[in-house]
Amino acid sequence: MTDPAIVFHRISGGYPSREVLRQVSFAVPRGKITALIGPNGCGKTTLLKTACGLLRPASGEVLVCGKGVRSYSRRELARILAVLPQTRETPSLTVERLAAYGRYPHMGWGKSLSREDRRLVDAALEEAGASSLRHRELKALSGGERQRAYIAMALAQDSEALLLDEPTTYLDIGQKVQVMELIRALNARGKTVLAVLHDLDLAFGYCDRVAVLEKGELRAFGAPEEAAEAAAKAFGVKFQRLWLDDRERYLFY
């Protein structure tokens, strides 16, 4: 069995004034898409921030590629993990310049973008559906357009794993499907993905593993069929498994 990409071992903690996570343990498998789901305030974003070293747990340990996350320098970690945060400032940059920032962890200090860097930036813009936006200012974009620009930056980083905090935010249903199809295509090329998702249909339709958080605790982790009941209970809804277009789907209602 391949070693996991990220391991959460008995993670507790959150913020100085508030504990959010309690004894959370599971392993994100390498080369798979893992969804992190749960009601608002259950600790999804907190766990993602802990995974990339932005938050230090009160207890427990996060391992990335077999090493403690805090043993990496920021640049070393950025070569392994690309992070798309949920909330962020909107700098005065063009979309192309933002995407180019994704190449910085791979560049030496003071060096400019190489021809290969520029090729990867162009490819990232194309994959994210943001090529037509490349010369536009971020501040002039709609929420959905801005989201595609940040996805392009994460893709340009060309890291082993992607940590995505609500990557379909601000997108309409068609754009959401496009983003999930993009994530699936990247995964087919070997990328590990850990994504916070609010849309249960997308989480269970596209992901290989599902982690269910509720009140800061892990309620279930496994294949969609193993996590569906816990997900429905956490959200206070029902679910049904069905087949559409020769694929198993989950309907939550």
Please provide a written account of the structure.
With 253 residues, this protein is α/β, with parallel strands linked by helices. The protein is built from eight helices and twelve strands. The protein has helices at residues 44-51, 74-80, 95-101, 115-127, 143-156, 173-188, 200-206, 224-235, and strands at residues 6-15, 18-28, 33-37, 59-64, 67-68, 81-84, 161-165, 192-196, 209-214, 217-222, 239-244, 247-252. The strands form three sheets. Strands 6-7-8-3-9-10 form a six-stranded mixed sheet, sandwiched between helices. A four-stranded antiparallel sheet has the order 2-1-4-5. A two-stranded antiparallel ribbon has the order 11-12. A hairpin with a 2-residue loop joins strand 9 (209-214) and strand 10 (217-222). Helix 3 packs parallel to helix 5 and helix 4 (115-127) runs antiparallel to helix 5. The longest helix is centred in the C-terminal third of the chain and has 16 residues, at 173-188. It is globular. The termini are far apart. The mean pLDDT is 92.
* Tally of DSSP β-strands: 12
**Share of β-strand residues:** 25-35%
Structural class: alpha/beta
CATH homologous superfamily? Answer: P-loop containing nucleotide triphosphate hydrolases
Query: What is the overall silhouette?
Result: globular
Task: Describe, in short, the structure shown.
With 253 residues, the chain is α/β, with parallel strands linked by helices. 33% of the residues lie in helices and 28% in strands. It has helices at residues 44-51, 74-80, 95-101, 115-127, 143-156, 173-188, 200-206, 224-235; strands spanning 6-15, 18-28, 33-37, 59-64, 67-68, 81-84, 161-165, 192-196, 209-214, 217-222, 239-244, 247-252.
